Amino acid sequence: MRLTDAITRLPRPHNPERGAEAVESLPDLTGPVRDLIRGAAGCSPYLAGLIAREAAWLPDALDNVEAALHKALVPPEGDLEALRPALRQAKRRVGLLAALADLGGAWSLEQVTGALTALADMACDTALKAALARQVQRGKLADPDVGLFVLAMGKMGAGELNYSSDIDLVCLFDETRHDPDSYGAVRKACVKAVQDMSACLSDLTGDGYVFRTDLRLRPDPSVTPVVLSTAAAERYYEALGRTWERAAYIKARTCAGDIAAGERFLEELRPFIWRRHLDFTAVQDAHDMRLAIREHKGTGGPITLPDHNMKLGRGGIREIEFFTQTRQLIAGGRDRDLRVRGTVEGLARLAEKGWVPPHIATELSDHYRFERTAEHRVQMVRDAQTHNLPGSDEGFDRLADMMAMDRAALEAELHTRLAAVHQETEGFFAPGDQPAEPVLVTDPAMQARWRSYPALRSTRGAALFDRIEPVLVDRLSQAAKPDEAFAAFDRFLAGLPAGVQLFALFEANPQLIDLLVDIVGTSRALAQYLSRNAGVLDAVIGGAFFAPWPGQFALQREAATRMKAETDYEAKLDAIRAWAKEWHFRIGVHHLRELTTADEAGVQYADLARAALIALWPEVQAQFARRYGPPPGRGAVIVGMGSLGAGLLTTHSDLDIIIIYDADGVEASAGPRPLPARTYYARLTQAMITAVTAQTAQGRLYEADMRLRPSGNQGPVATSWAAFQNYQMNEAWLWEHLALVRARTIAGPDDLAADIDAFRQTILSQPRTGASVMADLHDMRARIAQAKSSQGVWDAKTGPGRMLDIELLAQAGTVLSADTCADVPGGLRACVAAGLLSDADAQSLATTYAMLWQVQMAARLLSTGPVRIEDVGTGGLGVLMRATGATTQKAAEATLTEAYTQSAAIIAHAVGDPDTKANP
């Protein structure tokens, strides 16, 4: 690119005489580029000096800017002494090219800062290599490859260096590459190498300097050497790291030395930077930092343009950076797409993901570019590390000339932009005073008791709660039954183990308080779940909480992605638990708020469970294979039984599963520790059950029940394919064949799954007599009645005429008609085909079952055990009554009793047991 062809603006020469001198030294330049030289030199004594010093080089450079830049960035050769003048020449040339392209409008802000950052990267890496080579020459190191690396922080890390930036560096080395006996000597040599690198870059010589270096962003810089081991740094951040250090590492980038070691360190530090949950405590931490900076730098006053600090002052660059980085810290732990270094790119990603309104992101990006441009101009004048606007009329006239603007228009635009930035960012960090606390119209002793609960025992938790308490009390007071709402909230708060994160979430998102009040006032079970798993609220503000249900396959992909993001097996188990909790909570909230029906919620719970098992099974097998080798033979299949196989679960359902394997003649696994095939699959099954049921830091994924495997608890935990076929053909009871009606393969090799599905159909299609099936069904009902009794009228599952009774009859109809449908309505139609039921009776049972399913889903949503009307409260009773279609409790209970009685009579007649009666 010829610079003259890309010029879009021209600075006015503030000092025409100095501008004229500059162009006279370059007689071959003509046209716009000559005017650019005149304006640049006439505004900046520093640039005038660079132009004079590089007069022989400059014409050719301006004729091909990209080539000149590329050549200037080629690392020079030589020792540290030879590098000093060479790197300073590179600094002059890159700085001059960037300044002219910037002033002439030929480069964007990103191109300018990118060129300056590329220079800093090259200079750091070149100087560090020479410094390490010196240590090798002096016999302090055997090899320059010692695992030493340099992290570029701040603007350099983000590729955003300004015209007179110093460079913030953190220098570390990988101590694991060295014997403990040589550790001290290696570190000492690394410290000396970094000191030599820093001096090479920052010493002021007759050729100037390259970059001022700042090494104080390392851990505890007042007492630590300039080079630390990675282990020491990790221990510091894990134990003492603060929010500002997390924010600093958003921009961190390995720029010199052992790049691979630096990237490994940053990966290890990822959990420190990016928290698993939405971290709204970062808002208060960032606001506190802003206030501390204002107090320390004296930049907290009103916007007055003379001497206003464009970086730290009100409405300045740092405000935009804090705004962006704080939102990245809040959500970046959950969304990797937000983990970008650049400010403008960060704003764009935040807008794309719904964390910042698009127009706000666009406006702040525009303000950021303008403010950075103005900052560059004041720095260009004398290469001063300043961020202040001029303090004199002459200085503002010069700035207006450099920006090719009328002074009055420039001042007006600066003031408008600074005010706009301040208004937008201040509203995020300090949204205003809280309203006065309303008078509590319920039990004052209860409110006083809140301060003794675990969630409020920390000073920070109590302070956050103080700020949200007025809103909470106001919302609870507006409930239909305030006393019940306050009592329910009291139970929730008492069960909350910690409060800082949750209270910060509510403060930043007050709309969530309405959801909390809705939950605690309606569903004790969901409120208990929320108190133990408050992190699930992150999903509510994650953007897709109220979006349409994605379906099982999308959930599978998402679960697999979550686990693949973790390298440690235990972390994978935690990841899928946290993921499943969020979706589980979503299903419950949608059902509670009538956004979904009971049937839809049941399908969604089943989708979630299947997706979790499908995503988890390969991870368990991979972990197991590291020790014992891959599965021998054809592998193993997880078969879902009961409600899981039928595809309808409640919120508290266990997972009924069996695992069938086919070693296909292979006697043992092939791995570091081979196992016989039978032992291999038994232990693999135990590993899977542990992965599902174990209590980790994120709790349990699901309870699992394997009693439906052949021979129940007496049989092996994993069943071979041959043994399963033999058992089902020759030993299984009728009830075990009935269980196959709802069996479905869930995860495992497709060919083995297809064989199992085909065999299941063969078993269900066997010819049977109605008399023998009904006789067995009669015995089964009797054993169930003896073993399990109903828990009252609201127990829709167990007892004559209830769900389990209807399901057994439907399954019997399925096997008699050689049908393979798994749902109850289909099974009841099969009963009609088999002559067990009339059309009217089948329709009656189907209608009753549909109502009972709604009652069962409502009951499980409200309570983890039997429903006690006195405990569910007014809101919960309303949920139960909606499930029956009644308007009063008495009418609902009468409807249920009548349904049980009628269904029990129909089933008894079909089975041939006229004495069976419903037991309300």
Helix content: 55-70%
The strand count comes to 10
- Quickly count the helices: 40
Give the distance, in angstroms, between the N- and C-terminal Cα atoms.
Answer: 88 Å
Coarse morphology: elongated
pLDDT under 50 segments (min length 5)? 432-439, 914-920
Largest beta sheet, briefly? 5 strands, mixed
Which percent range describes the beta-strand content? under 5%
Helix/strand class: mainly alpha
Mean residue pLDDT: 88
Radius of gyration: 36 Å
Descriptive key words:
920 residues, 5-stranded mixed β-sheet, disordered C terminus
Folded structure, characterized:
The protein has 920 residues and is mainly α. The protein contains 40 helices and ten strands. Helix 2 packs across helix 3, helix 38 packs antiparallel against helix 39 and helix 39 crosses helix 40. The C terminus is likely disordered.
Task: Provide a brief overview of the structure.
With 920 residues, this protein is mainly α. Helices cover 60% and strands 5% of the residues. Strands 1, 2, 3, 4 and 5 form a five-stranded mixed sheet that branches. Strands 6, 7, 8, 9 and 10 form a five-stranded mixed sheet that branches.
Describe the secondary structure blueprint for this structure.
Elements: H1 3-6, H2 16-24, H3 31-43, H4 45-53, H5 58-63, H6 65-72, H7 80-103, H8 109-137, E1 148-152, H9 154-157, E2 167-173, H10 183-202, E3 213-214, E4 227-229, H11 230-240, H12 243-250, E5 253-257, H13 259-268, H14 270-273, H15 281-297, H16 317-331, H17 343-352, H18 358-380, H19 393-402, H20 407-429, H21 444-449, H22 459-477, H23 482-494, H24 500-508, H25 511-520, H26 524-532, H27 552-564, H28 569-592, H29 598-628, E6 635-640, H30 642-646, E7 655-662, H31 677-693, E8 704-705, E9 718-720, H32 721-730, H33 734-740, E10 744-747, H34 750-764, H35 770-787, H36 803-816, H37 824-833, H38 839-862, H39 869-884, H40 889-911
Parallel strand pairs: 2-3, 2-4, 7-8, 7-9
Antiparallel strand pairs: 1-2, 1-5, 6-7, 6-10
